[in-house]
Structure formats: structure tokens, C-alpha cells
Write a structure and sequence with these properties.
alpha/beta; Rossmann fold; three-stranded antiparallel sheet; 7 helices; 10 strands; binds 2-amino-2-deoxy-6-O-phosphono-alpha-D-glucopyranose
């Protein structure tokens, strides 16, 4: 595991975009696993700028996002589909059909979970998976649990995650209580993992990366992955 500390968010974003951009340059048809939240926004801005300046080409890239809320329409500004369109997809030359998120509106979430897991496999697996980390150590929406979930599945969000994510909603009652997420097994299948974390995550990052490996701290499983880069900002 490589751990890089940066002095601020901007430097973290520059480095993260550099690694994601390098992946696209090395393998133009790569599969990127993408994340939402405030951590990746700066990296997406830079990728969009590089594409706009003709230095990166997303025309053959395929993307799979980690997760999506249940019950939100794709054009709902709080949905992760909306977030991704706004922060990245609409700003680079990626065909919309190459971008994938779980369908949180599916009537049969179990079938949808299977479809999404199979889709990732049929694309050839994820070349580079971008991750943020929740204050309780969640990755994707894999909350602390008795076991590491292996596959894409529906989750009940914890009170602390609902609380944390409510900052992006008008009222806490509007935050969905369920989501569909890649499982820990799905994430661990990615060939490379890039975890980015703001200064507010220093405590949980330390616990996850050097504490015991336990499903109570889902990100701790990354200690077992052969190719993880962590970019953590100090300020
Ligand atoms: C959400 C997402 C996670 C993300 C986390 C941290 O819960 N499902 O994938 O890592 O938020 O978000 P932020 O980067 O805003 O702290």
C-alpha cells in the first residue's frame, strides 16, 4: 500500500486526477470505478479540464459507480446519477451509454444487484477503483457489519451516514434510508484501488489502515488488497 500525504485538498485532487488520467492514457478502453461525495469533486474538475484541453480522451472509457440511493429519480439533484453527470460525465467526451450506476429504482433490487455485479464482470472488471471513506469507515455504502458483504446488494444506511449525508439535502427526512452498493468483494476485485480522504477523515483512516481488519471498519479490508494507493490530505 502506498500512502501519500498532501498539504491540502487541491494537491490531493491534482494527484488523484493524475493517477486516473494516467490509467486512461495507458488503457483508453479502461473501466474506471467511480465514487461520489465531496472528496472526488476536485479530481473530476481536473479530469474535465484536461479533457477540454485535449490531453485526455474518454471516448472509449467505461465507468461503473460504487453505489446509488434507492428511490431517487436519475434527474433528482440528490441522486448519484445526477452528481456524476454534473461533475464529470457531461464535461468529458464519454458516451452516456458507457456510464453505469446501480438502478436504485428497480422493483426487484435483488435482480438489479445481480445484474450490476454481472455487468462489472462482463466489462472485464474494474481497472482502477476510486474510493472515498465514510466517518465510520464505510466504503461505497458498505456500513460496519458482522461480515464483509461479497457482492452488490441493498443496504440500510446507518444513522451516522444519514446524518453525514444530510448536509447535501434540505431536510434530514429527505435523505434516503437505503442504497444499492458494490459489495466489499466487488470492490476488492478491482485491479487497482485509489482511496482519497480529506483531513476530517484522518482518525478513521488511521484506524482502517493500521488497525485490525474487521467488517466493523469496512475500509480495513483494503490492507489485504495488493495494489492500493491512498492520498490523504493533512489540511
Ligand atoms: C457517501 C458515499 C461514499 C463516500 C462517502 C464520503 O456515503 N456513498 O462512497 O466515500 O460518502 O463522502 P465525502 O467524500 O463527501 O466525505
Amino acid at each position: 500500500m502506498r500512502i501519500i500525504q498532501t498539504k491540502n485538498y487541491e494537491e490531493m485532487s491534482v494527484l488523484a486526477a493524475g493517477l486516473l488520467g494516467a490509467q486512461v492514457l495507458l488503457k483508453p478502453g479502461c473501466v474506471l470505478g467511480l465514487a461520489t461525495g465531496s472528496s472526488p469533486v476536485g479530481a473530476y474538475d481536473r479530469l474535465a479540464a484536461e479533457c477540454g484541453e485535449g490531453r485526455l480522451d474518454f471516448s472509449q472509457v467505461r465507468t461503473v459507480n460504487l453505489d446509488e440511493y434507492c428511490g431517487l429519480q436519475p434527474d433528482d439533484p440528490q441522486s448519484y446519477r445526477y452528481f456524476m453527470d454534473k461533475h464529470l460525465f457531461s464535461r468529458v467526451n464519454i458516451p452516456q451509454g458507457n456510464t453505469h450506476l446501480p438502478n436504485g429504482l428497480a422493483e426487484d433490487i435483488q435482480a438489479e444487484s445481480q445484474r450490476y455485479e454481472d455487468l462489472i464482470d462482463s466489462l472485464g472488471g474494474v481497472d482502477m477503483q476510486l474510493l472515498g471513506i465514510g466517518h465510520n469507515g464505510h466504503i461505497g455504502f458498505n456500513e460496519p457489519a458482522p461480515d464483509f458483504p461479497r457482492r452488490v446488494h441493498r443496504v440500510q444506511l446507518t444513522e451516522s451516514t444519514i446524518q453525514a449525508n444530510s448536509r447535501l439535502f434540505q431536510r434530514i427526512e429527505d435523505v434516503p434510508t437505503q442504497a444499492v452498493t458494490m459489495g466489499i468483494g466487488t470492490i476488492m476485485k478491482a485491479r487497482k484501488i485509489l482511496l482519497i480522504a480529506g483531513a476530517d477523515k484522518a482518525g478513521i483512516l488511521e484506524t482502517a489502515l493500521s488497525g485490525p481488519i474487521t467488517p466493523q471498519v469496512p475500509a480495513s479490508v483494503l490492507q489485504l488488497h495488493p495494489d492500493v494507493t491512498v492520498i490523504a490530505c493533512k489540511g
